Amino acid sequence: MTTGTTIASLADVPESGSLLFTVADGHAEDREAILVRCDEEPGVRAWINTCPHEYQRLDRGRGAAMRDGEIICPKHGSMFDACSGECDNGEAAGTTLPSVSVAVEDGEVLLADDDYTFRHEGGIDDDGPSSTSHIGF
Ligand code: FES
User: Fold this and answer.
1) CATH architecture of 6-121
2) Is the pTM of this model over 0.70?
3) Which of 48, 49, 54 to probe ligand 1 with, by most ligand atoms within 8 A of CB?
4) Which residues in the chain come in under a pLDDT of 50?
């Protein structure tokens, strides 16, 4: 039996695109991560939301661009396999997205990675009343 914090329902992970969430790493630094669909078990993967080529968010708050099971970097267009995180094309060729381990239990996606602590859904700035998000009053 897996234990871990629920990130989201599997049903909430878009078929194409990504679900953005925030974790804290071992230094208590907030990091953004994304959940994406994958054809391999358990049907979902989580990756740190930064292109390894240059600092660039893959999901800029509206879901990452995806095509044919690959995540497309918005800056130079390199494509990363949604299941393996590997890139074999463009500027980021030869890199792999840093992974965040997740598990699926009873339709819920759970964080299963001792290196990270779940903070909240959404990006780093989307953390509630003190948020600096763009949502008006
Ligand atoms: S920043 Fe992503 S491919 Fe260059």
Assistant:
1) 3-layer Sandwich (2.102)
2) yes
3) 54
4) 1-2, 131-133, 135-137
